[in-house]
Amino acid sequence: MLIAFNKPYGVLCQFTDRSTPPRPTLAGFGLPPDVYPAGRLDHDSEGLLLLTDDGALAHRLTAPRHKLPKTYWVQVEGQPEEDQLRALRAGLELGDGKTLPARARRIAPPDLWPRDPPVRFRKTVPDAWIELVLREGRNRQVRRMTAAVGLPTLRLVRVAVGTQRLGELTPGQWRWVASGDAESLSAESG
Predict the structure, then answer these.
(1) Which of 26, 112, 171, 186 is the 20 to 30 Å CA partner of 8?
(2) Mapping DSSP to helix (H, G, I), strand (E, B) and coil, where does residue 127 land?
């Protein structure tokens, strides 16, 4: 089974949290028993998270060798210049090595749900949106890449994993992924 879930901002990609006070987890969203995330999104990131009860499928979706594309809409501080986008496309040297080339382009502000809490607005600091498509998933990679080119991330929303898109899901909602769609997604990663 495969589930598409719109992970809200501030929710951990796990079902339990031992910190005090406990933080919101996936347990609060009525997901079926025995599923677990196939990949991760940081607690301060939002959007598409796939969950499954199939270990082999989870491995195919997350293993670095499969290079399954993941699409992000990123609100950044500043106005992206072509040289900054070109650097993202070429791959960047980060502390853990050079990233793979990415697809990067500026986009119009997307029609998204309001974030809670809202992104801090500053009249004197412009912001813009870019779409990044990565084929790897390092820790906080999108944030580190945008910061490396001088465009700190303000908001990060994953809108697609392979062919599976977030669609009309609002934060906290989930849907079953049809078996044919799960198979094509799995085949894309294999």
Answers:
(1) 186
(2) strand
Tokens at 74, concatenated: 């990123």
Helix (H, G, I), strand (E, B) or coil at 97: strand
Judge if 1-65+164-190 and 69-161 fold alike in CATH terms: yes
CATH topology of domain 69-161: Alpha-Beta Plaits (3.30.70)
CATH number at 1-65+164-190: 3.30.70.580
Task: Output the furthest CA–CA distance in the chain (Å, rounded).
Answer: 49
Domain spans, the chain: 1-65+164-190, 69-161
Q: Is the dihedral of CA 140, 63, 164, 104 positive or negative?
A: positive
Find the catalytic residue in 17, 34, 42, 54: 42
Annotation marks residue 42 as catalytic: yes
Mean pLDDT by 10 residues, the chain (190 residues): 96 92 93 93 96 90 84 97 97 92 97 88 86 91 96 97 94 89 60
Opening angle at CA 85, ends 129 and 75, nearest 5: 20
